[in-house]
Design goal:
about 120 residues; two-stranded antiparallel ribbon; mainly alpha; about 10% strand
Length: about 120
Protein backbone atom coordinates (compact mmCIF):
# COMPACT_ATOMS: atom_id res chain seq x y z
CA UNK A 1 0.00 0.00 0.00
CA UNK A 2 1.11 3.54 -0.52
CA UNK A 3 1.76 6.13 2.13
CA UNK A 4 -1.26 8.09 0.94
CA UNK A 5 -3.13 9.81 3.76
CA UNK A 6 -6.36 8.07 4.78
CA UNK A 7 -9.51 9.51 3.26
CA UNK A 8 -12.09 10.20 5.94
CA UNK A 9 -14.74 12.81 6.52
CA UNK A 10 -14.83 13.29 10.30
CA UNK A 11 -16.96 16.38 9.77
CA UNK A 12 -19.91 14.18 8.75
CA UNK A 13 -21.09 12.21 11.80
CA UNK A 14 -23.16 9.05 11.48
CA UNK A 15 -26.61 10.28 12.40
CA UNK A 16 -28.54 7.03 12.72
CA UNK A 17 -28.01 3.37 13.46
CA UNK A 18 -26.22 1.29 10.89
CA UNK A 19 -28.41 -0.79 8.61
CA UNK A 20 -27.97 -4.54 8.82
CA UNK A 21 -25.99 -4.59 5.57
CA UNK A 22 -23.80 -1.66 6.65
CA UNK A 23 -23.06 -3.38 9.96
CA UNK A 24 -22.27 -6.61 8.09
CA UNK A 25 -19.83 -4.80 5.78
CA UNK A 26 -18.22 -2.94 8.68
CA UNK A 27 -17.84 -6.14 10.72
CA UNK A 28 -16.35 -7.87 7.68
CA UNK A 29 -13.75 -5.10 7.39
CA UNK A 30 -13.05 -5.33 11.13
CA UNK A 31 -12.49 -9.07 10.62
CA UNK A 32 -9.70 -8.27 8.17
CA UNK A 33 -11.41 -8.50 4.79
CA UNK A 34 -10.21 -5.20 3.40
CA UNK A 35 -11.00 -4.74 -0.29
CA UNK A 36 -14.22 -4.65 -2.30
CA UNK A 37 -14.29 -8.06 -3.97
CA UNK A 38 -13.21 -9.81 -0.78
CA UNK A 39 -15.99 -8.00 1.12
CA UNK A 40 -18.52 -9.01 -1.55
CA UNK A 41 -17.37 -12.64 -1.47
CA UNK A 42 -17.47 -12.81 2.33
CA UNK A 43 -20.87 -11.13 2.76
CA UNK A 44 -22.61 -12.50 -0.37
CA UNK A 45 -23.70 -8.93 -1.12
CA UNK A 46 -23.53 -7.55 -4.68
CA UNK A 47 -21.25 -4.69 -5.73
CA UNK A 48 -24.27 -2.39 -6.09
CA UNK A 49 -24.83 -2.81 -2.35
CA UNK A 50 -21.26 -3.01 -1.05
CA UNK A 51 -19.71 0.01 -2.77
CA UNK A 52 -22.39 2.53 -1.78
CA UNK A 53 -22.14 1.22 1.81
CA UNK A 54 -18.34 1.64 1.72
CA UNK A 55 -18.77 5.24 0.57
CA UNK A 56 -21.26 5.95 3.37
CA UNK A 57 -19.07 4.29 6.00
CA UNK A 58 -16.10 6.35 4.83
CA UNK A 59 -18.13 9.57 4.73
CA UNK A 60 -19.35 8.79 8.24
CA UNK A 61 -15.81 8.35 9.55
CA UNK A 62 -16.18 4.63 10.30
CA UNK A 63 -13.65 3.41 7.72
CA UNK A 64 -10.55 4.81 6.08
CA UNK A 65 -9.29 3.80 2.66
CA UNK A 66 -6.05 3.84 0.74
CA UNK A 67 -5.06 2.61 -2.68
CA UNK A 68 -2.55 -0.13 -3.22
CA UNK A 69 0.67 0.76 -5.04
CA UNK A 70 -0.10 0.39 -8.78
CA UNK A 71 3.29 -1.20 -9.43
CA UNK A 72 2.62 -3.95 -6.89
CA UNK A 73 -0.80 -4.64 -8.39
CA UNK A 74 0.67 -4.70 -11.91
CA UNK A 75 3.24 -7.28 -10.78
CA UNK A 76 0.33 -9.47 -9.69
CA UNK A 77 -1.49 -8.93 -13.00
CA UNK A 78 -4.49 -7.05 -11.64
CA UNK A 79 -5.73 -3.50 -11.14
CA UNK A 80 -4.85 -1.69 -7.88
CA UNK A 81 -7.14 -2.39 -4.94
CA UNK A 82 -8.63 0.12 -2.58
CA UNK A 83 -8.17 -1.20 0.96
CA UNK A 84 -10.50 -0.29 3.83
CA UNK A 85 -9.70 -0.20 7.56
CA UNK A 86 -12.08 0.48 10.46
CA UNK A 87 -11.52 3.68 12.43
CA UNK A 88 -11.63 3.78 16.24
CA UNK A 89 -15.26 5.00 16.06
CA UNK A 90 -16.26 1.78 14.27
CA UNK A 91 -15.94 -0.32 17.45
CA UNK A 92 -18.74 1.51 19.27
CA UNK A 93 -21.00 1.42 16.20
CA UNK A 94 -20.42 -2.32 15.84
CA UNK A 95 -21.14 -2.89 19.55
CA UNK A 96 -24.45 -1.05 19.17
CA UNK A 97 -25.27 -3.06 16.03
CA UNK A 98 -24.54 -6.35 17.85
CA UNK A 99 -26.86 -5.36 20.71
CA UNK A 100 -29.60 -4.42 18.25
CA UNK A 101 -29.17 -7.72 16.38
CA UNK A 102 -29.43 -9.69 19.63
CA UNK A 103 -32.70 -7.90 20.48
CA UNK A 104 -34.04 -8.56 16.98
CA UNK A 105 -33.09 -12.24 17.10
CA UNK A 106 -35.04 -12.58 20.34
CA UNK A 107 -38.21 -11.85 18.35
CA UNK A 108 -37.53 -15.04 16.40
CA UNK A 109 -36.68 -17.10 19.46
CA UNK A 110 -32.98 -17.06 18.55
CA UNK A 111 -30.17 -16.27 20.88
CA UNK A 112 -27.15 -14.38 19.59
CA UNK A 113 -23.74 -15.93 20.00
CA UNK A 114 -21.51 -13.75 22.12
CA UNK A 115 -19.40 -11.67 19.73
CA UNK A 116 -15.67 -11.43 20.26
CA UNK A 117 -14.62 -7.99 21.32
CA UNK A 118 -12.63 -6.10 18.73
CA UNK A 119 -14.19 -7.82 15.76
CA UNK A 120 -12.20 -11.07 15.78
CA UNK A 121 -10.53 -12.43 12.72
CA UNK A 122 -12.33 -15.15 10.81
CA UNK A 123 -9.77 -15.53 8.05
Amino acid sequence: MTAEAPRTRPDIPMTKSLSYNAALVLQTIANGHGYGFEIMRTTDLPSGTVYPILRRLEAGGLVESSWEDPGRAHEKGRPPRCYYRPTPQAASELAEARERLARQQAHFGLSARPAAEGGGGDR
